[in-house]
DNA sequence: ATTAGCACTCAATTTAACCGAGTGCTAAAT
DNA sequence: ATTTAGCACTCGGTTAAATTGAGTGCTAAT
């Protein structure tokens, strides 16, 4: 078990390294006003903390930096979320004050605000297609054989897809189709729509429609939803101002990874609700060796449906970021849930 | 007037510098198999080309690199678009083979292909809101006071906006509104819809509708279109592999600029049709000092409506890029025009 | 007009010297 | 048994000098 003084020193080092990105020496700690013991004492403690694996030295005669294990200990035992500052609150409130009406927009804006406030990279995932259900479907004919399918989901978002209708489908037949679809498919998760189309709708269609084969084919396109959600980013270039990324190659491997939506998606899939902190190699991805990711889920009606998070250097301000994320997801959840229950 | 040999040497230097990103020396040119004169001769020619302003030296004892004036001359007089290679054709065809149904998608995909093929950054602008006209409008009610407005444009693209309807508007009244709108607003450019709403529709509305004030207010949101088009990018990280951008600060100022959609939009507004080449400071933007931008317009029904282009280091492969852009915009134009004329 | 020859230039690389922040360890002080 | 002063030692970073080599400009010979 760590002594009180060891804890203090560990925290001091994490603090100092977070601010300067440079290894912290014994003298600088000893000089603090709230510290009464000498550099030598600090050094002894440091040596102990190092053998315990919480600290490490970039080279033999340098000060100490926190190891990933040190960060992990800090996050698990020491850290308490910083209260969100007044000015941050203003910025976030601002976000929800703009009257935005689409889920996507809120998520995207949230990511922007978050990266602006933190100077790190923000990542956000919209409501999961697994949890998003069809609420209402409408097909608007445009030209003779072209139409738009408008899908309204229970998360309050709206999507449209252009589709081709079979030649010579009567307007009133189309109406019938739409009625059947709404009747059978409401409440079905988006990604299962196509499956449900065949399981639930096909037979009914057959009974009522002569062109049922052609129609089914058209609908397949209308109802297809990609599993992979879009990933939203904010402040991708923020990385470039961090001293640990003055090396272009590192930046590149990271930014290239961010282009791969599927991978990022996987990393962020909402698991347990609440805040998750992944430090360095805990992310299980090589390019993420020197970064940490803090994610938080937001919920709709009590169910976690999406994720929003921050990607920053391992020496990021955990306490502040966690505070911000808690605050933001709380508001997000409230807002989205209220939308969801309107009607 | 430049002699034949001078032209040859200019081209050789541009060529060499494009490939290696290093200043080209006299000896390396003289050693080429198709060159029979000595390094000294080459040096004399180089000196002349330098006083003419087509070449410059990074430092007094180095080889030559093309000046921006040199590139300009090359582009204007020497360059002939390289024939697009077979494998490039395959990739582009592939793009148009996927059945895509939305203008936006094609543009975005085009940008992707282009950056993949060139390893530069691609930039694309969707059809201009000035030239895009309303073709058809539909309002789909969702819940009691929420609805979706679906706008179909003459470029074949579809947009939706969520709007709030006045309390207690009867379905049949809504139908009337939609009919009036379609009647009066078809063919109006998107950005002028709101103006037209008041000029053309207000009075009619007043005659037929009790709640006309409230309705008008709702419609304002439905019909508002941002002037600034979205800008699509491909391969933003490609920049990071170019040797001239191993300096993080340069990269940052550039990437930050790319986040500013309005500015990029301005740079790319389709002016004359065809290919435009802007070299270095010709772009009138500080961050673009070391890059060139080649843009091409695509058309719908003979009218240039959008732009797609490439952003690369000044030493980029002009000839190849221009070839590619010509090929791609030609296909784009054909495809979009055919969509546009379907009906 | 062309080219061989040579002195010269200058960025880039290597080498050496030095500085200073910081450590570990020992022995004295508390 | 802690704590601390003291000191030798380490090592990255910086600066300065030396070396290298690709390339030039100019002159005189072809």
Automatic annotation (TrEMBL), chains A, B:
Pfam families: HrcA (PF01628), WHD_HrcA (PF03444). GO terms for molecular function: DNA binding. Keywords: Repressor, Stress response, Transcription, Transcription regulation. Residues 1-72 form the Winged helix-turn-helix transcription repressor HrcA DNA-binding domain. SUPFAM superfamilies: GAF domain-like, Winged helix' DNA-binding domain. One of its GO terms (biological process) is negative regulation of DNA-templated transcription. Residues 104-322 form the Heat-inducible transcription repressor HrcA C-terminal domain. InterPro entries: GAF-like_dom_sf, HrcA, HrcA_C, WH-like_DNA-bd_sf, WH_DNA-bd_sf, WHTH_HrcA_DNA-bd, WHTH_transcript_rep_HrcA_IDD. Negative regulator of class I heat shock genes (grpE-dnaK-dnaJ and groELS operons). Prevents heat-shock induction of these operons. Belongs to the HrcA family. This is Heat-inducible transcription repressor HrcA. It comes from Salsuginibacillus halophilus.
